[in-house]
Amino acid sequence: MKNIRATLATVWRIAIPYFRSEDKWAGRGLLGAVIAIELALVGNDVLLNQWRSRFYNALQDKNWDGFKREMLVFCVLATVSVALGVYQLYLNQWLQIRWRNWMTNQYLSSWMHDANHYRMQLAGDAADNPDQRTSDDVKLFVSQTLGIGVGLLSSIVTLASFVIILWGLSAAAPLLLSGSEIAIPGYLVWAALIYAIFGTAFTQWIGSPLVNLDFHQQRLEADFRYNLVRVRENSEQIALLKGESAERERLSERFSRVVGNWYGIMSRTKRLTAFTQSYSQAAVVFPFALVTPAYLADKIQLGALIQISEAFGKVQDALSFFVSVYRTMAEWRAVVARLDGFESSIRSAETLAIDPASIRITQAPAREIELRQLLVSLPNGEPLVAADGFHLRASERVLVTGPSGAGKSTLFRAIAGIWPFGKGAVAVPEKAKLMMLPQRPYFPIGRLGDAIIYPAPGGAFTSVQISEAVLAVGLPNLAGRLDEDGHWNRTLSLGEQQRLGLARALLHAPDYLFLDEATASLDEPSEARLYRLLAEKLPQATIVSIGHRSTLDVFHTRKVAMVQDGKIHVLGNAAGTLAETEPTAAR
Question: pTM for this structure?
């Protein structure tokens, strides 16, 4: 019961925001229509139950006029049932797509807000495969919540409606055992209740392990799919290293986990299905076993016997609702747990960003970036980089050097505001535009022109502006392909990607441009031309570079060396300070 209450509380927390959102009236209206139609279908079932009594009595009495009349009544009731069923399905699907659309947009907004997606990875939260959670899990949550919710409501209303009918029929068809009449008020209702309790208890006992099995199956399937995508994205490196055998072994090992868990689901499902099918088959003859003695003793007519059988089946089905949907509920609870974990992971990432003990991004009073008592740490808390009183002034050129692994790139991430681990503050001028260019820039799949101007929306720059930037960085062969669709991170060389990254910087014209070995794949003459291009096109920008080539010195006005002091890397010789070398002559 604790698990059920916890699951229902989680479902309420996940589901209710939609019905309070800007789309609430459409959602509430569609939900109300679906529920109203379900109640109408139950009412129609009650009328059909009464019709069966009259119809079979007419057959037993060989009443031709009664038979014709009941056939016409059936046509009306069947037409109403079909119409209600069609429109309930249509409105249910309409509600599903609106609800799913809203939830997906909310999850995407939260996940992609202010680098939450990045911090979630850094924190190592259990929200694996967010792509699955925002697609498959949301879809299943919406459809299964509606299915189970409407089904439960239908069962309750059906139970209330047919219990009254079955209670009255219990008096009309007394219980006969060995020719003796036993007076038990509403015995058919009690028989249905006992039968359903027995079935529900055994179903829970047999099927309870399916919840965890389904949870793990979804996670393992998503993990296998993710690794397939990784192979596709890195096919060139795998081919160059002749790594097909290793990848095939890795993929086979992951798929073996999928298969192993699936065998567990198969075994448990086999037992559950064997019981539920036996339970359902026995439910067909159980009411006949109870009532047929009364029929054979001429206590009731054939119509009443058929009516009792159907009414008993309706009550038993309503009471056995959890038996019939147990397999779906096991999968549904796994989906709810995954969405709950995803939301918790997002909240943790948001909390991490505003934690007073983490690195703070503040507003600088002057036109410069200042690092104030900054200590950048690893996610496990181990200190990595110390900096205090360091300024990046307007229009200057700074070269940051140091050994690999010293934390230079992590320092850039802290300045960009996406690395929360540590303490201290990074003061950034108000409305200053910062751009970080890593060694391998990112280009979304699509039009080349849109990929170059990313993250600006399409149309932010004219084709002429983009073409001029591409030509300026030395890629005339790409200047005429701006409307071509492609997977540019895979089809272009790393050198071409780095040139296009600099073209992106020329277009966006940031106030502070951070180059994290952004020209490392270029030859030295090409690198020199591009640095001169940046000086010409972005004269007011502050450019901060990470690099190891001595040829970069000439393009910077200040060089800062990162050295190791114990476990902490600092820029200079004194721990906790940023000491700088003498300015170099820039050309």
Answer: 0.74
